[in-house]
C-alpha cells in the first residue's frame, strides 16, 4: 500500500479532502456511490508506480464536508470540484480521468466543458438514464426511491432502488458471479460507506440521474472517451445507459471485470483493464 499525501482544498460551498500518490502523468480518480477516496485506493496504489494519482472524497462525503449540509447537489458543481483539484495539483497539465457510476457522470461533464484539461476519460457505467428511450420510467423510479426514503427510511429506499436497477425482465443482481465476499480492504470500508449512504441516496441520486449529457459535444470528443460496462452487469440499468451512450457516440463499449462495483470486487483485474483503456 502506498501512503498518500493528504490535502485539503476549499471550493465554493465545501472543503475537499484529497489524496496524492506517486509520480508521473496525472491520473484523477472520481469515485462513485458513497465510497469516497477509500473506494479507489487499490486502483490508486496500482497506478502510483508510474502516475501522479489524485483521488478524493466528493463534496458531502467522508472528509469533504459541505458548508450547508442541506445544499442541493449539481453535476456541474461536482465536475468543477474535479477541475479545481487538477488545477491545485498540476496547473495546466491535461489529465487522464477515471470515473465510476456517479463519478463517471462528473467525468463526462468535465470532458464536455473543459476538454483542454482532459487527455482521456474512462467512464464506467454512468447512470445517465436521460439518454434512454424509456427515461420516464427511470424518473419514476427515482421519485419512488425519494418518497420511500422520506416515509420509510434508508433500507427500504435502497431496496426500491436496487429493484429498479435490475436487468430488464427481472433476474438476479445480488452480486457479481462467483464472488461470495468482499476483499478485506473493501469490507473494512463498509462502515464509512453506510454512513454516507443517506446523503448519496437523498442528494446525489436524484440530481445525477436527472442529468442529460451533451451527446453532440461528447461525439466530437469521442476519441478521448472510453465508455465501459461490467461483464457481470449486462442488462442492468447503469450498463444499459453506458451501452446506449456508446452506440449513440459511435464508439465501442469496453467490458471490465465484475459488475457495477467491479473496481471493489475485482481490483487487480479491474486496474489492469483500466490501464489498457487509458493507454497507460
UniProtKB/TrEMBL annotation:
Record-annotated AB hydrolase-1 domain positions: 25-131
GO molecular function, one term: hydrolase activity
Top-level taxon of the source organism: Bacteria
InterPro entries referenced in this protein's UniProt entry, alphabetically: AB_hydrolase (IPR050471), AB_hydrolase_1 (IPR000073), AB_hydrolase_fold (IPR029058)
A Pfam family that the UniProt record links to this protein: Abhydrolase_1
UniProt keyword annotations, A-Z: Hydrolase
UniProt KW Hydrolase keyword: yes
Name of the protein in question: Alpha/beta hydrolase
Organism: Streptomyces roseolus
Amino acid at each position: 500500500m502506498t501512503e498518500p499525501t493528504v490535502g485539503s482544498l476549499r471550493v465554493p460551498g465545501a472543503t475537499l479532502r484529497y489524496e496524492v500518490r506517486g509520480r508521473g502523468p496525472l491520473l484523477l480518480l472520481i469515485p462513485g456511490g458513497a465510497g469516497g477516496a477509500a473506494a479507489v485506493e487499490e486502483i490508486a496504489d496500482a497506478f502510483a508506480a508510474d502516475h501522479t494519482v489524485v483521488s478524493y472524497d466528493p463534496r458531502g462525503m467522508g472528509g469533504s464536508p459541505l458548508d450547508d449540509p442541506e445544499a442541493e447537489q449539481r453535476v456541474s458543481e461536482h465536475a468543477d470540484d474535479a477541475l479545481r483539484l487538477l488545477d491545485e495539483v498540476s496547473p495546466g497539465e491535461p489529465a487522464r480521468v477515471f470515473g465510476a457510476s456517479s463519478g463517471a457522470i462528473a467525468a463526462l461533464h468535465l470532458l464536455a466543458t473543459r476538454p483542454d484539461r482532459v487527455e482521456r476519460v474512462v467512464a464506467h457505467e454512468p447512470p445517465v438514464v436521460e439518454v434512454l428511450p424509456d427515461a420516464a420510467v427511470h424518473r419514476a423510479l427515482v421519485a419512488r426511491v425519494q418518497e420511500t426514503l422520506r416515509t420509510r427510511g434508508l433500507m427500504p429506499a435502497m431496496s426500491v432502488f436496487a429493484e429498479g436497477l435490475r436487468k430488464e425482465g427481472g433476474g438476479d443482481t445480488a452480486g457479481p458471479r462467483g464472488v461470495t465476499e468482499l476483499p478485506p480492504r473493501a469490507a473494512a470500508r463498509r462502515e464509512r460507506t453506510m454512513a454516507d449512504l443517506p446523503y448519496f441516496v437523498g442528494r446525489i441520486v436524484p440530481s445525477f440521474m436527472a442529468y442529460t449529457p451533451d451527446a453532440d459535444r461528447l461525439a466530437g470528443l469521442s476519441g478521448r472517451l472510453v465508455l465501459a460496462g461490467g461483464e457481470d452487469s449486462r442488462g442492468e440499468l447503469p450498463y444499459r445507459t453506458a451501452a446506449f451512450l456508446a452506440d449513440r457516440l459511435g464508439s465501442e463499449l469496453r467490458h471490465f471485470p465484475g459488475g457495477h462495483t467491479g473496481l471493489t470486487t475485482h481490483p487487480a483485474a479491474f486496474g489492469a483493464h483500466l490501464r489498457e483503456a487509458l493507454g497507460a
